[in-house]
Amino acid sequence: MEKKSSHILNASSNLLGFSLVIITSLKITKISHSTHLDEFAGVACLCFAFSCFFSFLAIRSKKEKTGNKFETIADYLFLSALFCIVLAVIIVTMRII
Questions:
Q1: Which domain holds residue 90?
Q2: What's residue 95's pLDDT?
Q3: Residue 37 neighbours by CB under 8 Å, 6+ apart
Q4: Which residue, 32, 40, 79, 92, is the most exposed by fewest CB within 10 angstroms?
Protein backbone atom coordinates (compact mmCIF):
# COMPACT_ATOMS: atom_id res chain seq x y z
CA MET A 1 0.00 0.00 0.00
CA GLU A 2 1.32 3.42 -0.96
CA LYS A 3 1.84 5.90 1.86
CA LYS A 4 -0.58 8.84 1.63
CA SER A 5 0.55 10.70 4.74
CA SER A 6 2.59 13.36 2.97
CA HIS A 7 -0.30 14.10 0.60
CA ILE A 8 -2.76 14.31 3.50
CA LEU A 9 -0.41 16.64 5.40
CA ASN A 10 -0.03 18.95 2.40
CA ALA A 11 -3.73 19.10 1.55
CA SER A 12 -4.84 19.41 5.19
CA SER A 13 -2.50 22.29 5.92
CA ASN A 14 -3.65 24.16 2.80
CA LEU A 15 -7.33 23.61 3.54
CA LEU A 16 -6.78 24.56 7.18
CA GLY A 17 -5.66 27.96 5.96
CA PHE A 18 -8.69 28.17 3.67
CA SER A 19 -11.03 27.35 6.58
CA LEU A 20 -9.40 30.01 8.75
CA VAL A 21 -9.91 32.56 5.96
CA ILE A 22 -13.60 31.61 5.88
CA ILE A 23 -13.96 32.12 9.63
CA THR A 24 -12.06 35.42 9.54
CA SER A 25 -14.12 36.79 6.67
CA LEU A 26 -17.36 35.79 8.39
CA LYS A 27 -16.31 37.57 11.58
CA ILE A 28 -15.21 40.71 9.71
CA THR A 29 -18.45 40.93 7.73
CA LYS A 30 -20.51 40.06 10.83
CA ILE A 31 -22.43 37.35 8.95
CA SER A 32 -21.49 34.60 11.39
CA HIS A 33 -24.47 35.13 13.70
CA SER A 34 -27.05 34.57 10.93
CA THR A 35 -25.67 31.28 9.51
CA HIS A 36 -24.01 28.09 10.64
CA LEU A 37 -21.06 28.67 8.34
CA ASP A 38 -18.63 29.52 11.12
CA GLU A 39 -19.56 26.37 13.04
CA PHE A 40 -18.92 24.16 10.00
CA ALA A 41 -15.69 26.01 9.23
CA GLY A 42 -14.62 25.70 12.87
CA VAL A 43 -15.22 21.95 12.91
CA ALA A 44 -13.37 21.71 9.60
CA CYS A 45 -10.44 23.65 11.10
CA LEU A 46 -10.21 21.26 14.02
CA CYS A 47 -10.45 18.20 11.79
CA PHE A 48 -7.83 19.57 9.38
CA ALA A 49 -5.51 20.45 12.28
CA PHE A 50 -5.78 16.98 13.80
CA SER A 51 -5.43 15.44 10.35
CA CYS A 52 -2.15 17.36 9.95
CA PHE A 53 -1.03 16.15 13.36
CA PHE A 54 -1.80 12.48 12.72
CA SER A 55 -0.36 12.49 9.21
CA PHE A 56 2.85 14.00 10.60
CA LEU A 57 2.94 11.28 13.25
CA ALA A 58 2.42 8.67 10.52
CA ILE A 59 5.38 10.05 8.57
CA ARG A 60 7.62 10.13 11.65
CA SER A 61 6.54 6.76 13.04
CA LYS A 62 9.20 4.06 13.20
CA LYS A 63 6.75 1.15 13.29
CA GLU A 64 4.78 0.45 10.12
CA LYS A 65 1.68 -0.75 11.99
CA THR A 66 1.53 2.41 14.10
CA GLY A 67 2.16 4.56 11.04
CA ASN A 68 -0.70 2.89 9.19
CA LYS A 69 -3.01 3.49 12.16
CA PHE A 70 -2.09 7.18 12.30
CA GLU A 71 -2.52 7.48 8.54
CA THR A 72 -5.99 5.93 8.71
CA ILE A 73 -7.02 8.35 11.48
CA ALA A 74 -5.66 11.28 9.45
CA ASP A 75 -7.53 10.05 6.39
CA TYR A 76 -10.89 9.86 8.20
CA LEU A 77 -10.38 13.27 9.81
CA PHE A 78 -9.55 14.74 6.41
CA LEU A 79 -12.71 13.24 4.95
CA SER A 80 -14.80 14.63 7.82
CA ALA A 81 -13.33 18.09 7.32
CA LEU A 82 -14.05 17.94 3.60
CA PHE A 83 -17.66 17.07 4.43
CA CYS A 84 -17.89 20.17 6.66
CA ILE A 85 -16.46 22.37 3.91
CA VAL A 86 -18.97 20.95 1.42
CA LEU A 87 -21.80 21.76 3.84
CA ALA A 88 -20.48 25.30 4.17
CA VAL A 89 -20.37 25.68 0.38
CA ILE A 90 -23.96 24.38 0.13
CA ILE A 91 -25.09 26.93 2.71
CA VAL A 92 -23.37 29.76 0.85
CA THR A 93 -24.88 28.59 -2.42
CA MET A 94 -28.37 28.45 -0.92
CA ARG A 95 -27.98 31.99 0.47
CA ILE A 96 -26.91 33.33 -2.91
CA ILE A 97 -29.76 31.64 -4.78
A1: 5-96
A2: 75
A3: 22, 26, 31, 88, 91, 92
A4: 79
